[in-house]
Amino acid sequence: MLPTFLQLKKNSKKAQKDTAEFRMVLIGDCATQHIAQAVSGYAYEEGIGLELLDTDYDQIFAQVMDSDSELYQYQADAILIVMCTEKLYEAYCGVPIGDRGRFAAEKYEEICRIWKRLQEYNHPVTGKKMKILQFNFAEVDDRSFGNYANCVENSFLWQLRKLNVLLMQGAQNEGIYLVDISYVQNLYGRQRFHDEKLYYIAKMPFSTETLPAIAREVISIIKAIMARLKKCVILDLDQTLWGGVIGDDGLEGIQIGELGIGHAFQEFQLWLKELTKRGIILAVCSKNDEEKAKEPFLKHPEMVLRLEDIAVFIANWEDKAGNIKKIVEILNLGMDSFVFIDDNPFERNLVRSMLPEVTVPELPEDPALYLSYLKEQNLFETISYSEADQDRTRQYREEAGRTSLKQQFATYEEYLEQLGMVAEAKPFDAFHIPRIAQLSQRSNQFNLRTVRYTEEEAAGLAEDDRYITLYFTLKDKFGDHGLISLVVMKKEEDTLFIENWLMSCRVLKRTMETFVVNTMLEEAKKADAVRVVGEYIKTPKNAMVEHLYEEMGFHPLGEGKYEIITAAYQKQKTWIERAE
Questions:
Q1: Is the pLDDT of residue 407 over 70?
Q2: How many Cα atoms occupy the beta-carbon half-sphere of 98 within 13 Å?
Q3: How many Å apart are CA 51 and CA 410, to the nearest integer?
């Protein structure tokens, strides 16, 4: 259940500015004080240290176009732009009837000028461009044409819808993210979403009832920008993926398909299948006999999900918290990357108490409400997508196979030798830029300095002679991991400084980190660099690499920096061959 606006207002007063992880400016053409309180309060609710500057009323252009405005002096990571439909309608009414067919295009051009000006700004410390969060427009029809507004190009409804489509197209550009206010209005209905009296008196276009939902959408995007992403759904089976109990009711007795409540479970599975297509991993954790638990996936004609959609399948009679730990170990993801879905309140409470980092939605009792409830939670927000995401389930299923193989060998070295690993190390190229940017945005644990790139920034590095860029891929006898690591080294006189080194945790402990260091030093020799210097900047999530440089033979220089002399470096042993 969402907190109330009053609760969020109280939360906003508790935020500590000295612990801010993320700084944001709020500008709008309407009153934004309540929006600022809701967003700040929801950030506190989610454990995010957000520092928010709420600027003066209706000063968008003044703030954006003046290089000395408080917007730029604030040195924000992001800006939230609130434009309301009510002001849009006032502008529309001021346009001659014969010119209204161009209204949406001209308004969009105006917004694009704002975006372009903001993207010219680079953060003075990080050098990064400011992220832009833009409200779209809640759909309103003045009914001057009635239903015929859908057929008249210069009607307000037509132009409003066209403008929202144009915004969607524009948001495909790097660093621009739409906050879907129209979705929130659809969720609540116009009468609950908009308080006429509040707008007339205070120029506040959103009711206080719906401000928490609006704040949730904003914070979801900020969490995605900060790489706080959900990556895996762990599913119970009986009464969760189908109605009934497979062990008692048998294959013919479970409810799944077009009839009755079975349709709700089928729709739920269809949604889960769509999640896998955009990169979310599915796992099963069920109290069941494994053979019986797998039977519907193999034999039931109306099951949407099949075994190939499940990365890890665990069905036994052990406690679910322990089994979830096994799944986490196999997938090698952070515990806070997981969502656990189970119809049983006992199991949910057990996992919440023993694994508090795992997100456990409080499912409704009625299975017919599962899907609408989970959609409303918006647990799987993302700011990027690439075709490689579609292969993620396959990659993790292969990982489970590797884990099984490992148990067959007496020593870990024997296991690594049998994997037949081959890696590729090449400079950034246009084909891999989307995956390079995505990896930088998603990686938290094996990330030495937590530098993140947009596609534009990654492409810029590839063209800059001051940098040596490397991406790494890895494959073995079980399959192809794809692009799993990247390194960016900056040339500084006789030194190469490792500006960025990150790696997918899927390939840890396979000597891939050794292979990367060997490659970095080979590049240093080619560049006639005397030394290579690395830096570790601690974050709440990257403790696992705190001593990595020392383990790789670097010598500490103090203040988190380490160096290795190129001429003195001896290539270290690894079980990975370099692809020709």
A1: no
A2: 0
A3: 53
